[in-house]
Design brief:
Blueprint: H1 6-15, H2 25-28, H3 30-41, E1 46-50, E2 59-65, E3 68-74, E4 80-84, E5 98-101, E6 105-106, E7 113-114, E8 120-122, E9 139-145, E10 148-152, H4 161-172, E11 180-190, H5 194-201, H6 207-210, H7 232-254, E12 262-264, E13 272-277, E14 308-313, E15 317-321, E16 326-335, E17 338-348, H8 359-384, H9 400-417
Antiparallel strand pairs: 1-10, 2-3, 2-5, 3-4, 4-9, 6-7, 7-8, 9-10, 11-17, 12-13, 13-14, 14-15, 15-16, 16-17
Helix pairs in contact: 3-9, 5-8, 5-9
GO molecular function, one term: iron ion binding
Keywords: 2Fe-2S, Dioxygenase, Iron, Iron-sulfur, Metal-binding, Oxidoreductase
Cofactor: Fe cation
Length: about 425
Amino acid sequence: MPKYDAEAVRALIARRRPGHALESAFYTDPEVFRADMDAIFDQHWIYVAVECEVPEPGDALAVDIGASSVVIVRGDDEQVRAFHNVCRHRGARLLPPGPSIVGNLVCPYHAWTYGLDGALKFAEHMGEGFDPSCHGLRPVALRSVGGLLFVCLADTPPDDIDDLAQQIEPYLAPHDLRNTRVAHSADLIEYGNWKLVMENNRECYHCTPNHPELTIPLFAYGFGFAPEELTPEGQEQAERYETLRNASHAAWEAAGLPSRLIEHLDDRPTGFRTERLPLDGAGESQTMDTMAACRVPLGAIRDKAVGGLHFWTQPNSWHHLMSDHVVTFTALPLDKGRTLVRTKWLVHKDAVEGVDYDLEKLIDIWNVTNRQDADLVEMTQRGVADPAYVPGPYSPYTEGLVEKFMLWYLARLRAHLG
């Protein structure tokens, strides 16, 4: 039985006004948070890591998703697998969160020892009737999509991950994520409900007043605007962007770089969106000077000015892929009012820090943008908890993708509750 009041959650869903923000309880009620973990994070494909983080046999990575913990490990057969990070003896965690290098997975409590394929290899003092084959690690569904690793805790994961992979892998392939490495990783706790983190990511209404650094390479008009409110200068900028976007798409597609918009944010269990977008200035990378931060290109890309490929997945990830580096983000709920945002910057595996790239230049825009977003999320969490809060309407021009996130979330919640 669920550890929350399903009827109360259904009532909240039924009261929601289309095109409006959610009621306070969606962000502040522990019952709703438990429903979210049960219906969303325990049932859907969750982006957790990059395949290059486990490049060799014995490389392992432990990731927490709510109360669950998952171990991702590359076996001696080069296959990457995922298991519940729970010893089959008395439940001890096998590995702490983060990366490890292991010969076997050995429980630190009583030394039950598992192979990299999850099979129990050694358990002392268990007697003659004990059958090791019945006590291997419990597997977790895992899928690499072009080098991005997704796990699903459900016994029967959504099968549309296959179609997502078929559509998105041609977009990711030129960046050759499997031959990258993590140049830098940063964990930031945002003091807000996970949905506020995702809502904030799904719009750029807030970008111009709050992200002066990010809007150096990114066009403020790239995600919508109210045409009747534009000044002559704004109209000129909007037209310049649309002309550049159309011309860039045609040129990139002709060069073998899939670029045009694919959007399935609210019509399938594994919602996603992708498009290659032009960048301002030199058009090379998401850096302060809009030029490439790393001189070693990714994959077979030789033209530095191939814009930025953005790729979003519901419920918890967004990614930016340029010619020289990649930035990946995953949002993992900690409790109703805290969310872990994990950011990783990837460069070509042969790139050398201080020789091929300057780390500060590589990370500065998203480092400062993440902190700005964390402040905005915390400010909003405080506001939605205020008794005076009344859900307001979304902008039809700049918050349409927030509405699509909400439609996806509510549909998945409703489907799970029955």
